[in-house]
Amino acid sequence: MHEFFTQYGLFLAKSVTVLAVLLIVIARLAGATMRAAPSTHEHLRVRKLNRRLRGLQRSLQAAILSGKEFKALRKQDKAETKLQEKQGSARRRVFVLDFNGDLRASAVTTLREEVTAVLAVATASDEVLLRLESPGGVVHGYGLAASQLARVREGGVKLTVAVDKIAASGGYMMACTADQIIAAPFAILGSIGVVAQIPNIHRLLEKHQVDVELHTAGEYKRTLTVLGKNTEKGREKFREELEETHALFKDFVHTQRPALDIAKVATGEHWYGQQALGLGLCDALQTSDAWLVTTAKDADLFEVKFEPSRNVSQRLSGLLGEAGTRVLDAFTDRLESKRFP
Q: Residue 84: CB partners within 8 Å, gap ≥ 6?
């Protein structure tokens, strides 16, 4: 009996500990959410990146330089700041946007707002840098995202797209709208192709004597189904639609980058940055960080992010969702990604 109560006490203590940890985690996430977005109303967040880059540099210099040397640098900073204030609007401006793509291209919701805001103030001497990361997704979602970027060029503002990791399929559809594409040496570009995959469990249902009725008006209202019996005629129509979509994709890319040998690059294959440069899929090998550091010398850099309105529960669920996505992505990367041995 004594042993039973001992074991029960240990079990109870573990349960209370786990519950306490969960409550602490939830409380911290809620606190972080409130701090990160104190306003529940939509707003545009603008951050000057020149100050951030200078702050990183000065933090390190403060640690490695003598007091006299660092003081001289601070004096130099003040002189440069006064000079920039005198120059005023004469300095070139670069607006930095981010697009982290998922299957549905859901980031287009904020991208369209950011583009609208930038075009309201940008002039022909300004520039937009989009840091793009996307493996592609649904055609209509990425078609809209590419159209949002096309607005920048149509507005007479130069557009540069930076690909540090991946811009494939729909991601490359977006990238090719730019005046200039820069890519890291091992960034993935291309994958100009279309893919569709539909499971069919008709035979399983038939085996268990389950009937599925599907009624349509229009010969090709439904070509392939998950539950019903697929026909060869339906398969042919489905493949025909894929080919038509691929043709539209190729035409779009070729219109944006006419120098491309579209027959060579529109095979559905992807290439790393070094290979993509030789094929004309990008214009230079450079990371977005290197580009920003170089450009900051003679331009003002403004990071622009649209924050949609969200209540506390939405922000908390968003944080939990992002954490879950990061864990899933890490697990998937381990299983599927190409890597060095």
A: 91, 300
